[in-house]
Amino acid sequence: MCGIFGYLGKRDNALEIVIKGLQKLEYRGYDSWGVATDLNGELFSHKKVGKISEANLDDFKDKKVKLAIGHTRWATHGGVTNANAHPHFDPEKQIAVVHNGIIENYQEIREELGKENFVSETDTEVIAHLIAKYRKDYSFKEAVLKAVQRLVGRYAIVVLNVGENYLIAARRGSPLIVGVGEDEAFLASDIPAFLEYTQNVNYLDDNEMVIVNDGVEFLNLETGEPIKKRLVNIDWQAESAEKGEYDHFMLKEIMEQKDCIHRAINQDTDEIMHIAQQIKDSRGCFLSGCGTAGKVCMAGEYFFSIIAKRHVNFAPSSEFPVYHHFLRPESLLIVISQSGETADVLEAMEAAKKKGAKVLSIVNVEGSTIARQSDFSLHIKAGPEKAVASTKAATSQMALLLLIATAMIGELQEGRRILAEVASKINDMLNPRFLTYIKSVAEKIKDQENAYIIGKAENYPMALEAAIKIQEVSYVHAEGFAAGELKHGPIALITEGTPCISFVANDEVKQDVINNTMELKARGAYIIGISPDNHDVFDEWIKVPDVGVASPLVNIVPIQILAYYIAVLRGLDPDMPRNLAKSVTVK
Ligand code: AGP
User: Fold this and answer.
1) Could you tell me which of 68, 224, 445, 575 has the fewest CB atoms within 10 Å of its CB?
2) 116: burial class by Cβ within 10 Å (0-12, 13-18, 19+)?
3) What is the rounded end-to-end Cα distance, in angstroms, of the chain?
4) What is the mean pLDDT of the chain?
5) pLDDT-derived band of residue 128, with 50, 70 and 90 as boundaries?
6) What's the 582 CA to ligand 1 centre distance in angstroms?
7) Are residues 40 and 110 in the same domain?
8) Which domain holds residue 585?
């Protein structure tokens, strides 16, 4: 949530670089934006409510500066106004700060520094005021150190001080990455922001600070001592983070799924076997994640149960800390996250670690906080996922869990074969005719206010995931249920024409799901069947390949497409749904 970006270097169009970088971080927050620089010894700033993608670069062309900072906001403290947009300043307008995170003790600091001196409702403004206070007696570097030592909460900040030709950034709990180019450096919340300039990065860890001037210098936030960091080369190509021929990232990422599954299963055999063994050796294994990643975990529960005959417990990460009563050193927590930065997941990991349990993570963003704070981490290699709705990351994560389940019973090669076939069937499925048909279904239901989705066994989590996809991008009220649960209450919601999606796989529960679908049809529901075979009960049939226990991987794809088209047909931007952000770094 919130994207921050800072540039310092040889180019004199720093404002333009910062704005373009922030446009690539827009998925992190898009209610308002702002930039600041030192323009001939005076603070220049520009803030605006709205999306940074709508910024006019021409407005900044005449400002030749080699250093700038900027921010794209997802509001936490204070409404969406120009005053609350970042950067925030001290009263003398000498210090400018951009921030991602939450300062928990901001009220107390505000009181101390005089509430009347503040012009915004944000928690961030106290950082600028605090730095300015210490700046009276200390150097810029010392003032930042002293100020951040007062902060309670999570933050990644970038600070500029008028008259000082360098930037300072610090992190505790929110992501911050340093891109290191030739005679230039970039400070950003995520790598795609500067990928067109450099692929060499330093990951800032918690309680670290970086000073960017002629080079980059890292310090420990608490002691001020210098730290040595390793420069990492990222193998993402700049184009992989661009929309290319597609109107939206969401559609592009849906279409990429065939390749992603291949990459996800192409893991080092020893690593997969090591993980499989750790699960087998653990006493109490938990799967945890949030939102879509949580539904992936639930699918994993079924994969481990059906394939490896092993019970694994799922808990959403926001609930997981409550499980601390059950945790012990022999427990294993497997966390799943696309961004690798989700605050609730980090908290779940903390709870597990406190009890001495091991943490394994499955993430998409290499070098992310979750990856680095785990005992062991697997990278799903799906490439940058920019649309807020998770699609390719989810199917890649499910592929990896299924692969691990097969490894647990000594069938890794067979697992690879099954998943390679799934990838190739998804490839066949994603043809223009398939998309056109789903778009026609979307046309029929786009004006409905409610939609319900049912699934059973390994497709029950997909019913829940389908609901998230439809809710978040199209704002249609959608709910997923275990197929057998409807008759215990929710069936009262069905009226003539209510769209109901039913996942009917060729598995041992097929007849049960058909029966439950018929119960819906008898109450007037308009049935959209997702199944390898047609059935009389379906009003619409979206044919998917028969891939046995891997059915969740193919079943969710048409729903991703359906959600996408409903959003587009309703005139919405599926990449940037209201109220949401791609990476949720607040609790
Ligand atoms: C998915 O479409 C959502 N936008 C959201 O539920 C997401 O999956 C969740 O916030 C977890 O994110 P993560 O995978 O980056 O941890």
Assistant:
1) 224
2) exposed
3) 11
4) 94
5) very high
6) 7
7) yes
8) 431-587
Q: What is the mean pLDDT of residues 308-334?
A: 94
Q: Rounded to whole angstroms, what are the CA distances from 486 to 237, 328, 457, 494?
A: 46, 37, 15, 10
Query: What confidence tens digit (pLDDT) does each residue in 149-201 have?
Result: 999 998 999 999 999 999 999 999 888 999 999 999 999 999 889 999 999 99
Q: 111 C-alpha vs ligand 1 centroid, how far in Å? A: 36
CA distance 365 to 363: 6
Q: Is the CB of 342 under 6 A from ligand 1?
A: yes
Are 256 and 113 within one domain?
Answer: no
pLDDT-derived band at 239 (thresholds 50, 70, 90) equals low
Residues 186 and 318 in one domain: no
> What separation in Å is there between the alpha carbon of 341 and the centre of ligand 1?
10
Is residue 112 scored above 90 in pLDDT?
Answer: yes
CATH number of the domain residue 310 falls in: 3.40.50.10490
Ligand 1 midpoint to CA 363 (Å): 11
Report whether residue 583 contacts ligand 1, using a CB cutoff of 6 Å.
yes
Distance CA 29, CA 52 (A): 10
d(CA 219, CA 202): 13
b/e sequence 540-576, b meaning 16+ C-beta within 10 Å: bbbebbebebbbbbbbbbbbbbbbbbbbbeeeebbbb
Question: 10, 24, 582, 587: which one is catalytic?
Answer: 582
Indicate if 509 and 558 belong to the same structural domain.
yes
Of all protein residues, the one whose alpha carbon is nearest to atom 6 of ligand 1 is 291
- For ligand 1, say whether the CB of 397 is within 6 Å of any of its atoms: no
Helix (H, G, I), strand (E, B) or coil at 462: helix
Q: 252 an active-site residue?
A: no
Is residue 240 predicted with pLDDT exceeding 80?
Answer: no
User: d(Cα 584, Cα 316) in Å, to the nearest integer?
Assistant: 14
Residue whose CB lies within 8 A of the most ligand 1 atoms, among 342, 380, 392, 470, for a mutation test: 342
Domains of the chain: total: 3
Residue 1 pLDDT > 90: no
The predicted-structure confidence for 246-279, as pLDDT tens digits, reads as follows: 999 999 999 999 899 999 999 999 999 999 999 9
Residue ending a domain, among 406, 430, 454, is 430
| Confidence at residue 250, expressed as pLDDT on a 0 to 100 scale | 96
Ligand 1: nearest atom to the Cα of 580: 4
User: Is 582 annotated as catalytic?
Assistant: yes
C-alpha of residue 295 to centroid of ligand 1, in Å: 10
**Boundary (domain end) residue, out of 361, 396, 430:** 430
- What's residue 581's pLDDT? 80
